[in-house]
Amino acid sequence: MYGPLLKQARSSGVNTLVVDVQPSLPPEDFLKEAKSMGFYLVSRVVVFEGGLRTYPAPPEHVNKVIQRAEAAATLGFMEIQLDYIRFADKLHIRGLTLTRRYRAIASILQSFEKRLRPHGVRIGADIFGRIPFNKNDIIGQKMEVFAPYLDTIYPMLYPSHFYGDPFYQKNPYRTIYDGKTKAIRRAGTSRIIAYIQGFTMYVGKSGLSYKDYIKKQILAARDSGGAGFIVWNPKNQYGTFFQALEETN
What we know:
The protein is of the alpha/beta class. The protein is built from nine helices and eight strands. The chain has a single domain (3-248), classed as Glycosidases (TIM Barrel), CATH 3.20.20. It has helices at residues 3-12, 28-36, 59-75, 98-116, 143-146, 166-170, 172-186, 210-223, 239-248, and strands spanning 16-20, 40-46, 79-83, 122-128, 152-156, 191-192, 194-197, 229-232. Strands 1-2-3-4-5-6 form a six-stranded parallel β-sheet. Strands 7-8 form a two-stranded parallel ribbon. It is globular.
């Protein structure tokens, strides 16, 4: 069932798979097959769907998510990737200062680290693409807050999502290169792996074909250093990406 996609990914040069573990864990035969082919397996764990909207965070919810992350680690994933570990964008709560937001997120990260380290897995987290560019951010994400608790930080540097910034929307190479280099400077000992755009949203603004748009991002991810890149397509349609990757290898 999974063989053809895994084989195509591997033959194209892919070495890492990010797999959702919510609402259910993936079949063990899938993980076994992927491992046998040499893939590095990362489990994506959503912490607060759409972002945290209350303060403080409900401890029972955090514990439930940590338990799911522990289950993924026990199943054999090599890394736990935390997504949506932030406050909701444009959330305003009286008295909830930036400092309190950062402390709240740091406390949650610390809880994950304490529970996951004994499992021998790496711990990573996704951040908005704008975070490496921003000194402070209302969603409670900050490079210097995340780095002490994480092995890997994944800035989601999709050019399409740089709203209000036509330069970065039109220049996929510069978006990835600038975002990744800025992240590396602020990451401490954490690895930086950029998420790049594997979907067609606003690609036309660049004047490039979809495949060339992806190739520009791949080259930028390599040129900027760090520990690589992950591509995301919301429909799991990676044919064009596989072609772009093969042509840049």
